[in-house]
Amino acid sequence: MAKQYDLVVIGAGTAAMTAASKVRAAGRSVAVVDHRPFGGTCALRGCDPKKMLVGGTSAVDHAKRMRGKGVAGEVTVDWPELQSFKRSFTDPVPSKQEQSYASKGVDTYHGLARFIAPNSVDVGGVALSATHILLASGAEPVKLGIPGAEYLATSETFLNLQALPRHIVLVGGGYIAAEFSNIAALAGAKVTILQRSDRMLKNFDPDVVGWLMEKFTALGIEVRTHAAVTRVDRIDTGFVVHADQAGTPVTVSADLVVHAGGRAPDFEVMDLNAAGVQLERGRLVLNEFLQSVTNPAVYAAGDVAQRGPALTPVSSHDAKVAAANILEGNHARPDYRAVPSVAFTQPAVAMVGLTEEAAKAQGLKFRVKSSQTAGWFTARQAAESTYGFKTLVEEGTDRVLGAHLVGPHAEDVINVFALAVRHGLTSRELKSTMFAYPTAASDIGYML
Ligand SMILES: Cc1cc2nc3c(=O)[nH]c(=O)nc-3n(C[C@H](O)[C@H](O)[C@H](O)COP(=O)(O)OP(=O)(O)OC[C@H]3O[C@@H](n4cnc5c(N)ncnc54)[C@H](O)[C@@H]3O)c2cc1C
Ligand SMILES: NC(=O)c1ccc[n+]([C@@H]2O[C@H](COP(=O)([O-])OP(=O)(O)OC[C@H]3O[C@@H](n4cnc5c(N)ncnc54)[C@H](O)[C@@H]3O)[C@@H](O)[C@H]2O)c1
């Protein structure tokens, strides 16, 4: 006989923890299912382990920048030690998460969840039925559909490398390529990025990314744009990556080839047909309440929902919305205004709100202020030559529409702009705010 719950959550990542906790706190019975260690992508295979590695490589970058300015000697990354440092965070995550679920009275199941009926899933021979089922099953690297794709290492493999290969090729030029190239280059590897588009980090402002590319060059990272990877061959000494670079076939040899070509949900294993959950062009068909339009028992949150950007804060935001609708009936809608986004390069690049292109497309009248500011104190004090910004402010209302930053502490300063954009603060209000000095946030007034 099937075990009965008010809510079954598929996945045990960020979205799952938020939704399960909220629904359980309201007194409902909840089960969480994952076929991998509990904790999900961000804590185990994404944001957090990545940032632990960045902790080491950014220290090396800073030491290098300060050489001849009061810091002497060679500082290098000890990769195995840095990996141990990372594991000091990641290793305890699954048991902590399971303890957290247990302490809340949430049941946990290990195995792949597969629908067997509109309200039921099978997990390794155990049937779970529920009034509601939340898909919080995240995303996986997309299938690149090229010969030799099986030779590509995933981002997870890269984050767990016990030894750093000499030459790494990254297939793709988005977030993962930007961040991993910096980690690998600062740890001593030769890095080549093969990016199909005309530039890296397409979500970010082109000028700001252009300034960042100068730093990539300084780090020795080779970025090839208009280079679509078409095939990967395995040879005795490693791999040969074939690409079509602006119509010309090129090859690059590598010791490791890493998939950085995008992520998408994998619905195959879940058998959505058995639940009557409709997909359209690879996406769940959801209403404004994050509920399946064809099976009202099913909601979705986070990367699997593909509604907001595939970022951790969006997963928890979606989960709060879905939990509220499950508990109280449909009334909450996700609000994706001003989701800040950061690529943790050296230095970080960050954005929030509208790009110039998007603001123009919306027919808005706005002023742009933009400058490279390596001469400002924030950059000089950090001995960082890459520092710049672009801000968009609406004419008439004076509302801050968007901010695009690259430089020391951009990953933190962007949150102040996020507050302004989300809550409709004006440029005047931001400029009249006192920020502690000397901090990078104290530059905000000059950026507007
Ligand atoms: C390398 C990397 C770095 C990143 N860095 C950042 C960052 O710095 N900042 C940021 O905001 N975002 C970052 N992200 C994105 C972020 O990790 C995701 O947006 C977020 O973790 C998604 O959370 P989620 O709860 O939606 O899904 P996940 O955390 O992916 O959880 C889904 C879980 O569902 C399980 N699952 C899937 N199918 C089934 C099934 N059928 N049965 C049972 N279990 C199943 C999976 O095993 C997985 O554990 C990064 C991603 C990657 C890959
Ligand atoms: N700091 C962060 O917030 C962070 C970090 C890492 C990942 N993420 C999340 O994970 C997602 C996946 O990251 P990602 O970097 O894999 O994807 P991405 O979508 O950021 O970039 C993928 C890039 O790969 C290119 N590409 C695809 N196939 C290619 C091919 N055959 N040859 C050459 N280029 C090819 C695409 O043109 C695209 O520009 C991100 O979209 C983001 O949501 C976030």
UniProtKB/TrEMBL annotation:
It holds the Pfam family Pyr_redox_2. Coiled coil: none annotated. Residues 339-443 form the Pyridine nucleotide-disulphide oxidoreductase dimerisation domain. Transmembrane segments: none annotated. This is NAD(P)/FAD-dependent oxidoreductase. The keyword Membrane does not apply. Gene3D superfamilies: 3.30.390.30, FAD/NAD(P)-binding domain. Keywords: FAD, Flavoprotein. InterPro entries: FAD/NAD-bd_sf, FAD/NAD-binding_dom, FAD/NAD-linked_Rdtase_dimer_sf, Pyr_nuc-diS_OxRdtase, Pyr_nucl-diS_OxRdtase_dimer. It comes from the Bacteria. Its cofactor is FAD. The keyword Membrane does not apply. Residues 5-318 form the FAD/NAD(P)-binding domain. Belongs to the class-I pyridine nucleotide-disulfide oxidoreductase family.
